[in-house]
Amino acid sequence: MFGIEPTIIWMILGFLLASYSVIGNDSVQTLGTFIASNQKTKWYYLWGFTALILVATLSYSYFSSGGDISSGRLAKIPFIEIQWYHVMAPLVLVVLTRVGIPASTSLLVLSAFASSMVFGSILMKSALGYIIAAVVAYILWIVIFKWDNQSNPVPKDKESMWRVFQWSATGFLWYTWLSHDIANVAVFLPRDLDILQFFLVLLVFIVWLAHIFWRRGGKIQSIVMEKMNTNYVRSATIIDLCYAIILLVFKEWNSIPMSTTWVFIGLLSGRELAMSSRIKDYKFKDAFPIVGKDLLRLLLGLGISVLIALAIQNPEFFVDFF
């Protein structure tokens, strides 16, 4: 096709689909509370702020590593020639994103590239992240509930201060999140991009980011909005800061990629259960269906990830089966 090798075409297509999936699905974990609590702010101001951090984060990784934008997350997943079946993973993720299912990009996309041992490590680290985030959030919001709830709003004279805190917390979270999840896109790219390739990659990310802010998060945003008080600036700030610290700890732990989606859902689930323990008219039986639905969505995404991994790494099994 026009003298271009098929592997190059699949690489470009896989990159475009994966980048859309990461921005459209995973980034709402990071930016969802930011969008929810800044609904009166014009979308392009929010976009400009996050785009600057994205450019700075990826530029640091690129120039400090000699062309790699993954922040070292792909150290155990070497670059391979992209085939059509590798593209199926981000394509499935796009479909799940369109119907509002918060599947794990890391598990779904990296399952197509990682060995079974590395994939097992990714899964274990992700499950541990979910548990730790849920426990930390439950304990934290049990302690701070009287201070951080709808009946105790931020005083008018302190709203500007909290808005500054929230934008700062979002910037910190956005940086830590990018350090984890860009690997899900970079896995389709050579680990030593030239400068033109790097600028084209940045351009694609910035365009997708503008799209998600213009749509105010899209369907995945409902995962944030259905939780208690996530649109209040103080709650959004605390959620973002807690999430960022947990991601930073896991980032420094080792270079194995992990599902930030699992950490985010675990954080919101633990917080929701804590709220149900403290609010008189909001009981555990009201919170459990919300928490359970999110967990089922994660398990659905995991099941699809495992099937993709099996199909790519053991194609003869599926040929014999069908």
Set down the secondary structure blueprint:
Blueprint: H1 6-36, H2 43-65, H3 84-98, H4 105-110, H5 116-144, H6 159-181, H7 183-186, H8 195-214, H9 222-225, H10 233-253, H11 260-278, H12 284-313, H13 315-321
Helix pairs in contact: 1-3, 1-6, 1-8, 1-10, 2-6, 2-8, 5-10, 5-11, 6-10, 10-11, 11-12, 12-13
Structure description:
The chain has one domain. It has helices at residues 6-36, 43-65, 84-98, 105-110, 116-144, 159-181, 183-186, 195-214, 222-225, 233-253, 260-278, 284-313, 315-321. The longest helix is centred in the N-terminal third of the chain and has 31 residues, at 6-36. The protein contains 13 helices and no strands. The model has no long low-confidence stretch (mean pLDDT 80). It has 322 residues and is mainly alpha-helical. The chain is globular.
Quick recap of the structure?
The protein is mainly α and 322 residues long. It is built from 13 helices and no strands.
Helix content: over 70%
Sheet with the most strands?
Answer: none
- State the low-pLDDT regions, or none: none
Q: What's the number of extended β-strand segments? A: 0
Q: Any idea what the shape is?
A: globular
Topology order in helix (H) and strand (E) letters: HHHHHHHHHHHHH
Cα-atom radius of gyration? 20 Å
The percentage of residues in β strands lies in: under 5%
* Separation of the first and last Cα atoms: 31 Å
Number of helices: 13
Overall mean pLDDT stands at 80
Count of domain modules: 1
**Class based on secondary structure composition and strand pairing:** mainly alpha
